[in-house]
Amino acid sequence: MATDTLWKKLRGWLATAGPVRAASSAATPSGAHVRVADSLRQLLEDPGIPGSIRTELSSDFARIESMLARLEHGELHVAVFGRVSAGKSALGNALLGRDAFEVGVLHGTTILSEQAPLDEAAQDGLVLIDTPGINELDGESRERLAFDVAEVSDLVVFVADGDLTRDELDALATLARTQRPILLALNKIDRYGDSERQSLLDHLRDRTRGLLHAEDVIAVAARPPARRILLRDDDGNEHEHMQAVPADVAALRERLLDIARREGKSLSALNAGLHASRLTDQVSTRIAETRRDMATRLIRNYCLAKGITVALNPIPVADLLAAAGLDAAMVVQLSRLYGLPLTRAESGRLVAVISAQLAALMGAIWGMQLAASALKGFSAGLSVLVTAAAQGAMAWYATVLIGRAAERYLVAGKSWGELGAKRAVAEVVASLDRDSILREAREEILRRLKGREA
Questions:
Q1: Where are the alpha helices (DSSP H) in 178-249?
Q2: 0.70 exceeded by pTM
Q3: What is the pLDDT of residue 229?
Q4: DSSP characters for 234-297?
Q5: d(C-alpha 250, C-alpha 146), whole Å
């Protein structure tokens, strides 16, 4: 069957199906396509994603935009993979019925992935993506590009021209993990006799068992060499003539058409959904990292403020009361940072819960802090440098603990989890290096106190 006739069949199916209609009862229901498209739009338009993260992941967001357009226009994208000179570009041209991709005879000539619609008319349909050879000399960057293209393709055609090498098998296994349907095209079958061709196909099906379905290993001849024939003229003289041999890709084309007819919409929706899920995870991770960095700076600022306040306050125990107020203010700021704002009263109650658990875990330490506070009172403030740095360091450490415990509570959605506050606070205490925190706090507070005296 002619190339344009086959793709007109596909184009007609796409027009009948519409951008969100399932191709069969086994495919994803039409509502799923609508939901996937809606999810992509929500991700693209989410006002909660900081501009810095959008910039950092700009290529991923651009990919999502492309996938959304694909869903809306009913496109199916097919990536063509293979070794250098296995015939990837030639196969693409044969499927398209025109020279859309450059063909080389020595090393691979595909430098960047190219896209060409399988139909030259305005109607959207199948899009073929040629890729660099997986064993290009400059290796990893182009191979990475190839797998990136696979991630945004709905289906993969892997081109080989003989038995598979170890690299080709590894590449097939990696592609299989992307959960894309894969067709293995055995190219250049014009070099083999019928029995040899069938034997090689059976061998490839055996080697790829578990990765591919047997019916997805298909023989093709993308660019058969011209045939030399002798023609006799009217005078009886013989003349040599080179006769072009048409490509033999009908079986592969029919298989692509069948998959597109049965599963095309589902593949596009599934692929878009998987990529959107990965991007959402990336965005969540970046937001969490950004919030954690901001929370770290916020907690440190309150540590410094609390440490200095406690160190400079000459009134016994009053410094601890002032410190509690700073802790409550810090938790209010943290709650806003994590998008779960607390009132001052709620913050105070949360600080009280954390402090009670810390007191139970570290009663001796809090006793030392009270003693240091009292000592300042007995010395009328004359022993500030002797006692204030130690007490301020303890206040600093307590703020770190309270801040990290409150942060954990907020990250969990205002919850201590099944094991409760006691276990959560204990895990926070165990995760922090008390000695290094106290050392940093003492050094910073002493530096600030000496700077004030000077």
A1: 194-207
A2: no
A3: 73
A4: TTS-EEEEEE----B-HHHHHHHHHHHHHHHHHHHHHHHHHHHHHHHHHHHHHHHHHHHHHHHH
A5: 25
* Of 74 and 9, the one with more pLDDT: 74
Strands 217-219 and 227-232: unpaired
- Residue holding tokens 């009053």? 318
- Decide which of 170 and 314 is more confident: 170
Task: Give the tens place of pLDDT for each residue, 333-348.
Answer: 999 988 899 998 999 8
408 contacts 428 by C-beta, under 8 angstroms: yes
Cα 11 from Cα 369, distance rounded (Å): 78
- Of 6-20, 297-311, 401-415, give the lowest mean pLDDT range: 6-20
3-state secondary structure 110-165: CCCCEEEECCCCCCCCEEEEECCCCCCCCCHHHHHHHHHHHHCCCEEEEEECCCCC
The yes-or-no verdict on residue 79 having pLDDT over 50 is yes
> Which residues 6+ apart lie within 8 Å of 313 measured at CB?
319, 322, 376
d(CA 85, CA 68): 34
Name the amino acid, one letter, at 224: P
- C-alpha 56: how far from its chain's center? 13
Per-residue pLDDT at 4: 42
Burial state string for 194-231 with b = 16 or more CB within 10 A and e = fewer than 16: eeeeeebbeebbebbeebbeeebbbbbbbbbeeeeeee
Query: pLDDT tens-digit profile of 182-192?
Result: 999 999 998 88
Check whether 209 has a pLDDT greater than 50: yes
Are residues 267 and 76 in contact, defined by beta-carbon separation less than 8 angstroms? yes
Beta-carbon count within 10 A of 312 CB:
17
The CATH number given to 3-282 is 3.40.50.300
Beta-carbon count within 10 A of 337 CB: 17
β-partners of residue 171 are none
Q: Spell out the domain ranges in the chain.
A: 3-282, 313-453
CA 75 and chain centroid, separation? 22
**CA 124/CA 73 separation, integer angstroms:** 6
Higher pLDDT, 413 or 69: 413
Q: In this structure, what token pair is assigned to residue 108?
A: 């691979």
